[in-house]
Amino acid sequence: MVLSAITEFAAQEPKLYAFIIGLVGAAILASVINVGAMAVVWLERKVMGDLQARYGPNRVGGRWGILQLGADAIKLFTKEDIIPRGADKPVYVWAPIVASATTMLVAGAIPFGAVIIDGKEIPLVVANMDISALYVEAVLSLMAISAFMAGWSSNNKYSMLGAFRGVARMISYEVPMGVCVISVAIMAHSLNLVEIVQAQSIWFAVAQPLGFIIFTIALITDLGRMPFDQTEAEEEIIAGYNTEYSGIRFGLLYFQEYNSMLLGAILLVLLYLGGWNGPVIPVISFISPMIWFFMKLLIVLVALIWIRVSLLRFRIDQVTDLGWKVMLPLSMVNLAWAVAVGLYFA
Amino acid sequence: MTTANDVLSALQSAFPGAIEDAKVDPERQLWATIKPDKIVDVCKYLRDNHNFDHYSGAAGVDKINEGLFEVTELLASHGAHQVVALLKVKTPRDNPSVKSLTGLFWNANWYEREIWEMLGINFEDHPELYPLLLSDELVGVWPWRKDYKGYPDYTTAERAIERINSEGYMEYHIPPTEAEIEAGTVPVERPKYPSLREREEMEIKGESEMILHLGPQHAVVPGPFLLDLLVDGERVKKAFLDVGYIHKGIEKIMENRTYVQGIPITDRLCYMAALTNNEAYCGSVERLLGIEAPERAQYIRMILEELSRIQSHLLGTGEFLTLIGSAVFCPFLYMIIDREDVLTCIESVTGARINHSFVRFGGVRNDLPDGFKDMTLDVLKKVRQKTEEYKELFLSDSIYNKRMEGVGVLSPSEARRLGVSGPPLRASDTPYDMRREDPYLLYKEMDFDVITRKEGDSKARIEVRLDEIVESCYIIEQCLDQIPSGPIQEKLPKRIKPDPGEAYYRVEDHRGEMGFFVVSDGSDKPVKVKARGPVYAYFQALPPLLEGTYIADVVAIAGSMDACTSEVDR
Fold first, then answer.
1. What is the pLDDT at residue A229?
2. A315 in any annotated domain
3. pLDDT digit string (tens) for A281-337?
4. Predicted ipTM of the assembly
5. At what angle do helices A142-153 and A157-188 cross, to 10 degrees?
6. What pLDDT shows up at residue B190?
7. In this complex, how many residue pairs, one in chain A and one in chain B, have their CB atoms less than 8 Å apart?
8. Is A340 helix (H, G, I), strand (E, B) or coil?
9. Among B213, B337, B403, whose Cβ lies nearest the Cβ of A53?
10. In order along chain B (570 residues), what is the average pLDDT of each group of 10 residues?
11. Does A235 contact B333 at a Cβ distance shorter than 8 Å?
């Protein structure tokens, strides 16, 4: 009955309906992505603890420390909000907001799995654009802008060095990353992420192993995680671009890193690991794609955490060297490979 | 082989009349008083003709009864022979002045600066007599002089007023009271010199250059010190170092304590090397007293000092890895776990984990507990196995090699010139180890290798440390096999009053050459205690090493030195 009332309303007021659906979708999206990021933070602390032969959070919220993040959030919210005297105030204030908005923009175009209703696969995506792969790739590089805003406006030498490093790194890795996305699009004959997933009868990680490796490295660089966290190398430049931030502004910047880590891992699963594709599990066939999707996502996330604790940091000149001299030529090779083999998938 | 007597007779024939009351005591140590105007010539002669290429430090002594200051210069050789020359120069207390040796030995710079700011002895021809350890306000009070009155007023905190300084920031100012000015504890006229900030800003040449402060509170620094980098983008053009943020005046404190009370204070020089610091101080006083520890006590000392070396190298390497990786880098935490086991072994004997105060004059405090041998052998087996694992872990890591190879290279000649010792020197192909060079305890009878590397870069320094862990395990195993039973403490009078005289005793600290120079006047308190620490020399060598590197390399180079600020400032 409710369903029929909604369809009736949609027929009468299509514009208002689209607006309301958009708002509801955004709210669901924001909560899903933020709760997901909280889960990622918890996962990282726990897995990291295990890898380092210690416990990780185990006090707040039972022996698994589930509420630790809530406690941290309360702490960050109630802290004094400090803006340095010499800071460029509007830019300083807007940087965390731009950072959060960027992740939401990415999240809007990314499908978070699919459900099967009546034998039909329905992807869970807010904005199913035709060029969503290109769009996501473009918006991801906006992250460097927010980092640069934060670093420049803080009026701090460490922040500024961190911001410069961030931009240098972004420029050298966006190009190979973009070329990799193009190679995937060529093989899938589409720039739509949903169609890219559906085109993966063979995972693209298998079809283009080189592209998969390059994309993974470029993604870690984009996310600014070890071994590419020169922007916030704490042993050299304190905390890099967010040195001067405190309280909830720092919380937003910090959280945005985990938001983008989650989104990056999802992107990797969608582009190379077959998304939600997998054998349909009987009985729970309704959510069978979700199960495959989350299993793949979990493996990618744990791999990212594992990399963080077991690798050392590159120097910034080595990072840019690697980007321009190794990754870019190899991504071109991968593009040629995709064009050649793409015919097979046609 | 050159002996101390050869050097003495050569000196006496080369500079007739310039050498006063020379003696050789004990063998390998040459003590001589040189006429002030000849000191540079004598040192130059020793350096050029007798291979005294290692300037090991200088100590200033205030002999207030004789109205004199004495500066003792310590010279040694990097392996050509084992003679240590301790050359004394006397200068009157009013208007004291000594010729500087900076022209001969680059690393004389800091030692002379320290003596200048503490005792007020002027060093002629010294290029930069600026305060090193003291704050600018304290220069001119000459705190190491015996007639220094100190700050008698404990109400300074209440008198502190807030004022805005020239840069617009708030600072605290403590105005001197009239009584203080009258008593002369506050210098009214201070020597004029540019401050560190002014010296740094003089070096800024272009628009794109700036000063980046690493410290006094910064992740790279093991304790509070200021490392200022003049950077152009990511490149370091020049580095400036400022120490003295945790100056505790340990040497002055020890002058006001009895000899035994000095032992716990040596722990506080550097908590990582508490046992070797104990050893260096006690060995020096033992020389003054003319006693030697019983054999069993010497074995116990060796065992504990080698265990202490293992734990220090483990933590030093681990901390270094967190600097080029991040604080979450796994092997660091694994090393902490290993170190915990080693500390448990030490704790079972000394009862303490960090500040042991274990070594005594002529012996040790406790005997080894039951079951110590088995426990230690188990731990050593594990440590050895894990160390091999760590070596495999880093040396096969391509990122590690990329970051470390050819970074902060010290060529053998450069390393000797800069005066570093310990692992950084041995990584530069110079087998200079006090356990071989100036054998103390029973290291003569031990079978071990002095680990060296040819490359001299940051990677080589870490390799030397890891190899030394294995070598130390080997030494401890020999000691545990050979240790005899017997007394652990020589009979000593209740009140220790050595005869007047001086003694110098140096040991191989985990970081290099650690020496104690103790002067006695026959009372129960030393007249002067000078600690010659290895990290002081590292720090002095750091700025030239950092020039032309990347900011990220600064971390790698400084970390590979395994520094300890507490020992530098003392």
1. 83
2. yes
3. 787 778 888 888 899 999 999 999 999 888 888 888 888 888 899 999 999 999 998
4. 0.81
5. 180
6. 58
7. 84
8. helix
9. B337
10. 80 80 81 86 85 88 87 86 87 86 87 88 84 77 78 60 78 73 61 74 81 80 82 87 86 88 88 88 89 89 90 88 79 88 90 87 87 90 90 84 86 87 88 85 86 87 90 90 87 84 88 89 88 88 88 85 83
11. no
Can you give B322-347 as a three-state secondary structure string?
HHHCCCCCHHHHHHHHHHHHHHHHHH
Within 8 A of B324 by CB-CB distance, chain A residues are: 235, 312-313
SS3 (DSSP) at B151: coil
Q: What average pLDDT does range A94-105 have in this prediction?
A: 88
Q: What is the four-CA torsion angle of B383, B384, B389, B391, rounded to 10 degrees?
A: 110
The count of C-alpha atoms lying within 13 angstroms of the C-alpha of B560, restricted to the half-sphere facing its C-beta, is: 34
Q: A88 CB near a chain B CB, below 8 Å?
A: no
CB spacing of A229 vs B326 below 8 angstroms: yes
Beta bridge partners of B528: B519
The whole-number average pLDDT for the span A180-198 is: 87
| B328·A48 Cβ contact <8 A | yes
The continuous run of DSSP H or E covering B437 comes out as: helix B434-437
Cα–Cα nearest to B156, from B137, B133, B169: B137
Range of the domain at A186: 82-345
What is the Cα gyration radius of chain A?
21
Cα B222 off chain centre by:
15
Work out how many domains chain A is built from and give that number: 1
Rounded to whole angstroms, how far apart are CA atoms A298 and B568? Answer: 49
In the block, tokens 């997933």 appear at: A197
For residue A113, pLDDT beyond 90: no
What SS3 class is residue B174?
coil
Report how far apart, in Å, the C-alpha atoms of B318 and of each of B96, B118, B315, B334 are. Answer: 46, 36, 5, 9
Determine the Cα angle at B438 with ends B435 and B443, to 5°.
35
Which range, of A86-100, A195-209, B198-212, B376-390, averages the lowest pLDDT? B198-212
Residue with tokens 């380092």, as numbered in its chain: A52
Whether A27 maps to a domain, the answer reads no
Contacts of residue B328 in chain A, CB cutoff 8 Å?
Answer: 48, 52, 226, 308-309
Beta strands in B126-265 (DSSP E): 161-164, 170-173, 209-214, 226-232, 235-242
Q: What domains, with CATH codes, occur in chain B?
A: 4-138 (3.30.460.80), 151-184 (no CATH), 250-569 (1.10.645.10)
Q: Each residue of A222-244: b (16+ CB within 10 Å) or e?
A: bbbbbbbbbbbbbbbbbbbbbbb
Share of chain A above pLDDT 90, in %: 10
For the cut 90, the answer to whether the pLDDT of residue A128 exceeds it is no
Number of CB atoms found within 10 A of residue B142's CB: 19
Per residue in A247-266, pLDDT (tens digit) is 888 888 888 888 888 989 99
Task: Give the model's pLDDT for residue A346.
Answer: 54
Q: Do B328 and A227 make contact, defined as CB atoms within 8 angstroms?
A: no
The CB density around residue A318, as the number of other CB atoms within 10 Å, is: 17
Closest-CA distance, A227 to chain B, in angstroms, reads 8
On the 0-12 / 13-18 / 19+ scale of CB atoms within 10 A, B202 is exposed
What does the CA dihedral B415, B418, B423, B427 come to, rounded to 10 degrees?
-10
Position A216 scores a pLDDT of 92
| Cα B302 from Cα B46, distance rounded (Å) | 33
Return the ∠ at Cα A224 (arms to A220 and A230), rounded to 5°.
125
The answer as to whether A339 is a domain residue is yes
* Rounded Cα–Cα distance for residues B412 and B428 (Å): 5
* Chain A interface test: which of B220, B221, B328 (most A C-beta within 10 Å): B328
Q: Is residue A17 included in any domain, yes or no?
A: no
